[in-house]
Amino acid sequence: MPSTLIQEESMYRFRALCVLCALAACALPADDAQTQTSVNPDISVIPRFLISTNDGEKLSEGTRVFSRPDLQFEELEIAFQSYLNPFSKADVVLTLPGPDLEAGKLGIEEAYATVFRGLPLDLNVRFGKYRVEFGKLNIVHPHAWPFVTAPLLQARFLGEAINDLGISASVLLPTGDIYTKLTVDLLRGTSIAGVTGIADTTGASPYYANAARLMSFFPLGEMSDCEAGLSGYTGIHDPYWRDRFWYGNLDFKYKYRPDFYTSLVVQGEYLYNTRTAHQDGSLVPFLGADGKPEARKITTSGFYLYADCQFFKIYSIGARYDWTESPYHADERAHGIAVFVGYYPVEETLGLRLQYANTTTETPAAQPAAVSSAGLTQSVNSIALQVLFSLGPHKAHPF
Amino acid sequence: MKRILLLILLAWSPAAFGVVRVVTTLPDLADFTRQVGGEKVSVDFIVRGDQNPHFVEVKPSYMMRLKSADLFLTIGMELEMWAPQIVDGSRNASLEVVDLSKTITKLEIPSRVDASQGDVHRFGNPHYWLDPRNVRPMIAEIVDALAKVSPADEPEFRANADAYLKKLDAKIAVWERTMTPYAGAKIVTFHKSWSYFAAWLGLDVAGEVEPKPGIVPSPSHSAEIIQLVRSAGIKAIIVEPFYDIAAPDQIARSTGAKVLRLATSTGGVDQATDYIALMDYNIATLAGALK
Questions:
Q1: Between the CA atoms of A25, A28, A31 and A32, what dihedral angle is there, to the nearest 10 degrees?
Q2: Is A68 in the B-facing interface, judged by CB distances under 8 Å?
Q3: Overall CATH class of domain B177-290
Q4: Is B61's CB within 8 Å of A219's CB?
Q5: Domain A3-27+40-389 belongs to what topology?
Q6: Is B58's CB within 8 Å of A261's CB?
Q7: Measured in Å, how far apart are chain A's first and last C-alpha atoms?
Q8: What is the ipTM of this complex?
Q9: Which CATH number among 3.40.50.1980, 3.40.50.150, 3.90.930.12, 3.40.50.2020 corresponds to the domain B12-173?
Q10: Please, which pLDDT band fits residue A211 given cuts at 50, 70 and 90?
């Protein structure tokens, strides 16, 4: 790396470190500790580490051998939360992604303010950069998942997550005692390139995107509840041809919690994708019979379904099934199963998750010859052990 | 025009309908509110008596309960860490949140607050409602809160409160007489919920089944408790209905002490139909074990 870049990196890290030290100094105990802590934000730090292995690396050589287990730094998350005033609060989440500790850059995962009181129609308005309320899983940070790896449909259709600059407004609909909320977002569209779209290298401003979610919460009895949601997301996935995509998503979550030590969660989502496209995500044009570029109407989908059972308060065991196509090719499919166990000896302050997954990917034969897996169906087994710990206050869990 | 608008606003106030809508965290607070408010209040609560009040999931259905409420009564002292999220989610700009701990003499205020101490409450032990002498200041706060919403009914609220406190004082005298022979007796509790109860009755909480608040009992700590129970001749191990009975049962089998399922809230056991019945049950059960 050139010395000037090294110096810039060093200055960036130094500035970030100074900010963190200043914030930490504000949080140091004072004589009047209760008054001091009441004006400081809640600060939490959650690092995740991963030891993983899989048997897919030498499949092209016809060999199935588990790789040497790799100990990796997965991610560090630093979160600040506080009320700004009686009417609004703010959340800032910084993340340092892995696996390279030295090269990783502290980035803004989320930074938003929410006005939750004092607006007409009891509106909640959020502005900033945030994980969009699309489906049930998109707003959940990975450290709070019961499994180690994201569902296949999330990886293929949403990238890491729909996380964008924008403004969101939500309102509770008049459905009697049933909690029904409608959320609508106007987004800058910068996350679409990461959401299996095509990156615009012209430097032009991205096209706006929109998202919405309608959800309802149904208490089913003293010990069980259910939530169902319907989401939509649309934007321009190809800035060169100005081609639009539409996502529709159905989600549900059921939870049975008979006592303090036991619970069962069943959750699933189905995503429907439709888009007009002149080229796929790798910029390979769709050609008509005459060999000229043509627009195609593509319709694909995916879903996941998982169940997770907590018992004796500190253990959990679960399983997940995934099936998905890809945003541009209906014949590019993947499906898999994952089985996972969790151990949380002291709530979320310390957690271990062990996951076995088998993932099968089908790559159509019509792929360019450069793609070595063209025409192949490959099945890969993976085992991962995730370790995480959490510093800071533990908020009550939302449903 | 202004006068007409004022009349319309007054017509839509809770006082105009004669009912103050109250939601409480614990069912005991709901009981107190009904005693004070009578037919002038409609009351709901969030935590069932057989649920651990420390850990409540933030459900949208709880937000709906608060959405149309006038008052939200809480124990405070960060017992209900989940409450602010439910309040914020209710989108009820006119909701008054009342902390009933304001004038309580607090026990066990920690000098050090960090995670090494377990789930320690930084403002002190919040389980103060288990000393029935603390119900008087709680009732006073409830009367004030109700009167603020419905000033016209204040005389009725005060009269109801006086009547209830008179009844409660008579019961306190009975409970104290029942437990006088056992003053100084040592007990073991699962969690630090019984400090106010023990201080009131002169009992000595010699140890807890939890090694630290909120920490699952460990074999080594259970062995220490077994040793303590044997050496001190402890007869009673108090466990709330929502805690796992395995470790207390093991201690009881090894020592001959009795595991007592005592409730910390109305509805925690079938017999605890209201606060007085709750204390009747707890006192009778404990006295029976300490004989």
A1: 100
A2: no
A3: alpha beta
A4: yes
A5: Porin (2.40.160)
A6: no
A7: 47
A8: 0.89
A9: 3.40.50.1980
A10: very high
